[in-house]
Amino acid sequence: MSAQAATTPGRTSRTSRTLRGALRRREAAIALVLVLVVVGTALVQPSFLLSGGGWRDLLLTPAILAVLAVGQAMVVFTRNIDLSVGSVLGFTAYVTGSLFVAVPGIPVVAVTLAAVAVGALLGLVNGALVAFARVPSLVITLGTLYVYRGLVLTWAGSDRIDAGEMPRSFLALGTRQVLTVPVLTIVAAVVLAVAAYYMTTSRSGRQLYAIGSDPEAADVAGLPVRRRVLTVFVVSGALAGLAGVMFAARYGSVSSAAGTGLELQVVGAVVVGGVAIFGGSGTVAGAAIGAMLLVTINRALPVVGIPDFWQRAVVGVLILGAIILDRVLAVRRSRRLAETREAESSGAGADDVEHRGSA
User: Fold this and answer.
1) Which domains does the chain have, with CATH numbers?
2) How far, in Å, CA of 89 to CA of 259, rounded?
3) Which of these, 295, 301, 313, 289, lies nearest to 40 by C-alpha position?
C-alpha cells in the first residue's frame, strides 16, 4: 500500500510536467484555443459542429489558407515575407479555369501541375529579386502583388469562368469526402506533413532557421543563403499555385478578383501560429493551426451574434497579441542566455583562481 502511495505522486508529477511542457509549446496552446472556440460556439449553436455541413465546413474552409500559410511560414523563417500570394492564387486559379476551357478533356492532374509550375515561376521572380538584387522582400512582393494582379486583370477583364465550363470530376474535388474528411483538407494535410518532415529532418530545412536568426552570420558560416531564400520563395509560389487549383475546385467560379486581400490573412495566420515575424523560429504546423483558428473565429463570431466590425477587431487583437507575445518570449530567451553565459564565465573564472592558488 505504501509503495503504491509512493509511486502515485511521482506519476502525477511526471504527468503534470508533461502537460506543462506541452502547453508551453505555442502550437499546443493555439490548438487548445481552437478547441475552446469550436466547443464554445457549438454550445451556443450545436449545428456549428454536430451537423454534417458544420463538420465539413470546419475542416474544408481553412484548407486553402492552411496551404498558403505553410509556404508563407517557410519564407518568414528566413526573415522575409511574401505579400504576393493572394495575387499568385488569383492568377493560377484563372489559369486553371482557362485551361479547362481552352483544352476540353485535359486531365485534372495536368492542369494542377501547370498551375503549380506557373506559381513556382512567379515565386522564382520574387526570390531572384530578393536573393540576388538584395532588395527587401516587403518591397519586392508588395510590388509583385500589384504586378501579378494587374496581369490577371488585363487577361480576364470582367470575364468569369463558371462551373459549367469546368469538368464535373474537377468540381467534385471541392465537395468530395473520404471518411467524412474533405478531399481538399486531405491535400492540405499532405502538404503540411511533407513540409514538416522537410523542416525537421533535412539539413537545408534547419538552415532556414539559422538564416532567419542571423542572415549575416549564416553567410559568413558558409551557408547557401541566396539559394535557400530563392528556394523558399519558389515553394511559396508553387503552394499558392496549388491553392489556386483548390480555390477553383472549391468555389466552382473564377474571376480576376480571386484571392484579393488574402495575403494579409496568410500573414496573420502565420503570426498567430507562433512563427516569429523576424524569422528564425516557429513551425509550419503552428502556421497551419493558426490558419484554422483565424478561419474558425471568422465563422464562429457571426454565429454568436457579434457584428462584422468586432469580428475584424478580434482578429486584429489576436495578431497584435501574438506579435507582442513573441517579442516578450524573445526578450526572456535573450536574458536567460545572457545569464547562462555570465554564470559560465563566473564559474570558469573561479576555477581558474582556485587552480592558481593550488599551484
Assistant:
1) 27-310 (1.10.3470)
2) 6
3) 301
**For position 332, what pLDDT does the model report?**
73
Helix H or strand E segment including 177: strand 177-178
Distance (Å) of CA 244 to CA 177, 256, 298: 20, 12, 21
What pLDDT, on a 0 to 100 scale, did the predictor assign at position 216? 87
Lookup: cell for 18:
508533461
Q: Which residue in 85, 22, 91, 123 sits closest to 270, CA to CA?
A: 85
Structure letter (DSSP) for residue 179: T
Instruction: For residue range 10-58, list pLDDT tens digits in order.
Output: 555 555 555 455 445 778 888 888 898 888 888 888 888 777 788 888 8
Q: 118 in helix, strand or coil?
A: helix
Which range has the worst mean pLDDT, 117-131, 165-179, 180-194, 341-355? Answer: 341-355
Distance (Å, rounded) from C-alpha 212 to C-alpha 209?
Answer: 5
Residue 17 CB contacts under 8 Å (≥ 6 apart), including other chains: none
Q: Is the dihedral of CA 108, 110, 111, 116 positive or negative?
A: positive
49-78 residue pLDDT tens: 777 788 888 899 999 999 999 999 999 999
Query: Are the C-beta atoms of residues 128 and 141 closer than 8 Å to each other?
Result: no
DSSP H helices, 281-307, are 284-303
Closest by alpha carbon to 137, among 199, 190, 77, 95? Answer: 77
303-312 burial, b at 16+ Cβ within 10 Å, e below that, comes to eeeeeeeebe
State mean pLDDT over 243-269.
91
- What residue has cell string 475552446? 36
Question: Which residue bears the cell 502537460?
Answer: 19
154: exposed, middle or buried (Cβ count in 10 Å: 0-12, 13-18, 19+): exposed
Query: What stretches of 252-261 show up as alpha helix (H) in DSSP?
Result: none
Residues 143-153 have a mean pLDDT of: 94
Nearest to 322 by CA among 286, 358, 351: 286
State the sign of the Cα–Cα–Cα–Cα dihedral 137, 141, 142, 143. Answer: positive
Place of cell 466552382: 252
SS3 state at 161: strand
